[in-house]
Design brief:
Elements lengths: L4 E3 L4 E5 L2 E5 L7 E7 L4 E6 L5 E7 L1 E8 L2 E8 L3 E4 L4 E6 L3 E7 L13 E2 L3
Antiparallel strand pairs: 1-9, 2-3, 4-11, 5-10, 5-12, 6-9, 6-11, 7-8, 7-10
Length: 123
């Protein structure tokens, strides 16, 4: 098991001949974003000092590089994977396929005073 990320399980899931439903959470997350990213795109390269960030891959594939205290790990996540990155872990995303994902934050990244809990490596 990694100490840079953690696999999560949806609270509930269901599928039949009509399709599927994933209930990712019922409580505990304050901000939810959905993003679609084109193959070959790079995102991230930052960390959060306070925010826990979870991702659910709806479709596609992304290689995530995680870094903390000179520890570096790469992990590929695909459709159906649900994982969380803890504060102070630098995370960078290299999209290997067109990817649709949901991002959940335990506290909002944008603070009430207008500042943001997003920091570049070394800050």
């Amino acid at each position: 098991m990694s100490d840079l990320y953690e696999y999560l399980k949806p609270d509930f899931s269901f599928s039949d001949e009509r399709g599927f439903l994933y209930q990712l959470c019922r409580e505990g997350w304050k901000q939810v974003n959905v993003s679609q990213t084109i193959k070959g795109t790079f995102r991230g390269g930052h960390y959060h000092k306070q925010t826990k960030e979870a991702f659910f891959i709806v479709s596609g594939e992304v290689e995530v590089t995680l870094e903390k205290d000179k520890q570096i790990e790469k992990q590929t996540f695909k459709k159906g994977d649900f994982f969380m990155i803890l504060p102070f872990v630098v995370h960078s995303f290299d999209f290997k396929d067109d990817t649709l994902m949901v991002a959940l934050y335990d506290i909002g990244v944008e603070k009430m005073d207008g500042s943001k809990d997003i920091f570049k490596r070394g800050e």
